[in-house]
């Protein structure tokens, strides 16, 4: 049994990112007897793996297995696993990606916006959350694109990745403790003007790091739209505009 669990864990880590710590501990299934039986069997075979959902796919004998926010596919015995994407060639849709997107949706209304730096552009009627590391080069590139957006309120959660940028936490705290947080953020990210590193105050930086972990955000920048879609990585302004505009449809 230990061998099977270790083998499954190895396959999971090789095929996809580790599931978030918030993965469900109970498994939901469809109504069929087969789905319930395979869910029970998977728990018996791989007790150390958090399996939150098991459903039949459109492919006979193949079942979708949700592990946190990750997806794999297995047969009715739970013996064979496949990691990758299933495409519906009739509709030209990536079925797996649709499910991953749904699993990664964030409830924007539940984000602790008081822990973010608020920047209003134009009327600010649309919203966008950005998880950013002050010393992340792609975050800096993103900051040059954000001013090209209009009618949007941007909430920047400073989330330093100390493993990559050892001084980032200090800078994030200094930016937060600045009199004008938004200006201090722009000055550093766009013009390399250091914030006043002597200022200290209560700050949400550690909470932001924990929030990122809870939301399975593993890199910066990561953006979240008002309807909860997640866009990892830097994107040009025209792509950002399309990303934000989708929630209006």
TrEMBL record:
> Which UniProt keyword terms apply here?
Disulfide bond, Periplasm, Redox-active center, Signal
Gene3D superfamilies linked: Disulphide bond isomerase, DsbC/G, N-terminal, Glutaredoxin
Q: Which residue ranges does the record assign to the Thioredoxin domain?
A: 86-249
- The superkingdom listed in its UniProt entry is Bacteria
Compartments annotated for it: namely: Periplasm
One GO cellular component from the entry?
periplasmic space
Signal sequence annotation? 1-23
* Cross-referenced InterPro entries: DiS-bond_Isoase_DsbC/G, DiS-bond_isomerase_DsbC/G_N, DiS-bond_isomerase_DsbC/G_N_sf, Thiol:disulfide_interchange, Thioredoxin-like_fold, Thioredoxin-like_sf, Thioredoxin_domain
- What does this chain do? Required for disulfide bond formation in some periplasmic proteins. Acts by transferring its disulfide bond to other proteins and is reduced in the process.
The entry assigns this protein to a family as follows:
Belongs to the thioredoxin family. DsbC subfamily.
Q: What is this protein called?
A: Thiol:disulfide interchange protein
Q: Which organism is it from?
A: Candidatus Gallionella acididurans
């Amino acid at each position: 049994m230990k061998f099977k669990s270790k083998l499954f864990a190895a396959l999971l880590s090789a095929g996809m990112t580790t599931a978030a710590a918030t993965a469900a501990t109970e498994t939901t299934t469809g109504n069929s007897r087969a789905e319930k039986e395979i869910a029970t069997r998977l728990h018996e075979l791989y007790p150390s793996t958090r399996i939150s959902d098991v459903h039949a796919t459109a492919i006979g004998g193949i079942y979708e297995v949700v592990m946190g926010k990750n997806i794999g596919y297995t047969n009715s015995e739970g013996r064979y696993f496949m990691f990758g994407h299933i495409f519906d060639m009739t509709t030209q849709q990536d079925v797996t990606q649709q499910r991953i997107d749904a699993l990664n949706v964030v409830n924007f209304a539940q984000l602790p916006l008081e822990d973010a730096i608020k920047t209003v552009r134009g009327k600010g009627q649309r919203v966008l959350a950005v998880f950013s590391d002050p010393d992340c080069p792609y975050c800096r590139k993103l900051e040059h694109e954000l001013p090209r957006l209009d009618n949007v309120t941007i909430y920047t959660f400073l989330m330093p990745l100390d493993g990559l940028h050892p001084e980032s936490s200090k800078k994030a705290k200094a930016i937060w403790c600045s009199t004008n947080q938004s200006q201090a953020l722009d000055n550093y990210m766009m013009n390399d003007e250091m914030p006043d590193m002597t200022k200290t105050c209560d700050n949400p930086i550690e909470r932001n790091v924990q929030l990122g972990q809870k939301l399975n955000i593993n890199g910066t920048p990561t953006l979240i739209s008002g309807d909860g879609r997640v866009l990892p990585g830097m994107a040009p302004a025209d792509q950002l505009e399309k990303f934000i505009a989708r929630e209006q449809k």
